[in-house]
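Quick sanity check, Semaphorin 3D:
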Amino acid sequence: MAPLAAALLWVLLLWPHGAGTWREHTPRLRVTYGELLKSNSSRWLLAPGDMPGSQALLLDEDRTWLMVGAKNHIVLLHLEQPGREPEKISWPAPRAQVEHCQLAGKDVETECANFIRLLQPYNSSHVLACGTGAYQPICAFVQLGARGQGPGMRLLSHSLQSGRGRCPYSPRQPFAALLVDGQLYSGTSSDFMGSSAAFFRTEVGGAERGYIRTEQHQDHWLHEPTFIGAFAIPDTHNPHDDKVYIFFRETALDGGQWERRHIHARVARVCKNDVGGKRGLINRWSTFLKARLLCSIPGPQGTQTHFDQLEDVFLLHTRDPQNPLVFGLFTASSAVFSGSAVCVYSMAAVRAAFSGPFAHKEGFDHRWVQYKARVPYPRPGTCPSETYDPLLRSTKDFPDEVISFVRAHQLMWEPIHPLGRRPVLLRANVPYRLRQLLVHRLEAEGRHYDVLFLGTDDGKVLKVGLPGEAGAEAVSLEEISVTEVPSPILDMKLSPKRQELLVSSTQGLLQLSLSRCELYGQTCMDCCLARDPYCTWDGSACTSLLLTEKRRAWCQDVLKADVLSQCQDTAEGMAAVEQPVFGVEKNSTFLECQARSPQTAVRWLARRGEGLGLSEVRSGRRVVVLEQGLLIRQLGWEDAGTYECQAVERSFSWPLIRYSLRIIRHEATELPHRRGKGAESSWTDPRVLGAPGSGSLDAYCTALRLRERQRQKAWQQKWQHRAPESKSSRVRRQPWRL
Ligand SMILES: *[C@@H]1O[C@H](CO)[C@@H](O)[C@H](O)[C@H]1NC(C)=O
Ligand SMILES: *[C@@H]1O[C@H](CO)[C@@H](O)[C@H](O)[C@H]1NC(C)=O
Ligand SMILES: *[C@@H]1O[C@H](CO)[C@@H](O)[C@H](O)[C@H]1NC(C)=O
């Protein structure tokens, strides 16, 4: 993308929507780490510094245990018994290998140890574990103890085998693995340098037998790939058609003399029953095909801004096992633009690309073109199945023509577009990058609502609601800081049964409730407007839906957010109390009013002079509408009147506070102690305090607010001894709340 176009886009993204859309992108609730601890909605399972480098998580929902792979250790946590000591296995790398690793110039603390990076369930009693083994990967079975019979997890040392082609050598390099039917599919680097990455399948049980992989040193198969996720998805009802899909990003090789390096997001697939070719492609995939995943937004003048850096993939299972939804998390960055996006793909779209035309390199400049010549039979990428052709029982029966075609054609011509052809979520120019993605689908009465949990690179978990209706806007719910100091979220697991999230970061492992309803506010309005599907108004408080009887609950219908009708029985908080304030002529005054949520906008209405209606107050020369309230400089007699601060959200507005401002003559302000001349001028004019940046204005308002409070107190005492006017006597009986 040209820098100018990018700059334009940056501007377009930021500005044209106006404040309304910007507020939608701000979370309803921003929870700091301190507030999180106080809210009692999280718990450290492995405290910061307890078990460094824990990144592999394996959750067993039914048996409620969580296995954690860490540095030189495997830990088993019993989630149902928080008091129980975690079980631990120590599994260091062999001493000789640690020395070898150090001699090769690696760091003894952060690299030359056995970092457990892979934990995959093998059967009901065994888990396959692989670690980096100080740059010599190793795998072994972990046997689980019988249920209820005390500690019993142990490492089966006789099952120790090489982890090459299963687990990376480095503790940090991304990889993807999936163990299914006793076969481990893994996309990983397979050497010390971390340079030759490939997609492997190895047999796990028993003696080490066959393996199969992508062709070596063939850039058109894979070029500098980074693997993100692997999933087994059945294609038809015929089990011979079962496939494994692997998601990754790689450097795309565009031909042409203007060749440029691009990162492209990809999905590749292989048949589970692929055993390689007989004469060619021996021990190589003979059904490996790949296609590009697109996730982009329209830019100026018909261009597209692509999000190509695939960061994470979440497979959302639906009732139809052949058609899960694929949620992809992508980032994009350039000198002037950075952002993250989530795109959703249907398996139908993925399959359509694989059944479409092949891509082909042609001509003197090796440009990619659509392959238009005859495609051999059986169509490359088809899984062998006797059901279709009795002569094709295995990939070894493929004709040579098919094998040589597959050897040269892996890439499909058509890319895969997301549903709706646009991201469901976009975050541009935010101070963090999204790294991890989880989706929780809530279903009720044939409709669904997806909640996205996104882990950032600076220790936050974002919670975003996606109403199931086409075109509905994403609802930004929470932004939770789960670490004391910013550090990347490494992995997240969802436990729908226990209604919690397990979040691992470099700081440790945290258990996090799916909601903190009470923090949304104390009124029905606050609760319902948040549109958090886990929360509801129970008549007296905002509570978790789980804790409430359904029939007593308000605002379960998060899709409608028809707050007024849902909250009409609970009008408390709707009628704002009128508060008197006294301003001194020619001086400044500050009327404080702040919405509870950053998503709520605030508007000021005023009635000045007798018999006039309320009209909106807009910022001007003397009056400034600020996030924190209304600042009126150089008060005059005409400023006296009623000021109402209203919260505005979607189509609703409701009063938050009402002030009746009275002006006191300048001469009547002989207070007991006066400030010096210099101080006076600096207080009355914010420009004196510095440039009109928000920082200095904030400081000014805080100072002004403080001073106002003190002065109001003094004035109240003074005025209580005076003969009240008829209007102010009503006002004065109100409790003083400024
Ligand atoms: C925190 O939650 C636990 C479990 O629900 C409860 O027993 C405890 O009293 C709560 N503590 C506070 C301070 O709310
Ligand atoms: C699981 O696999 C291991 C290793 O092959 C085997 O010894 C064990 O009997 C299996 N367990 C079950 C319950 O099948
Ligand atoms: C305006 O505010 C300053 C600062 O509190 C105070 O010293 C001054 O007396 C006020 N002016 C009048 C006219 O009350």
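Posting the structure with no commentary besides this: The domain at 578-732 is CATH 2.60.40.10 (Immunoglobulin-like).
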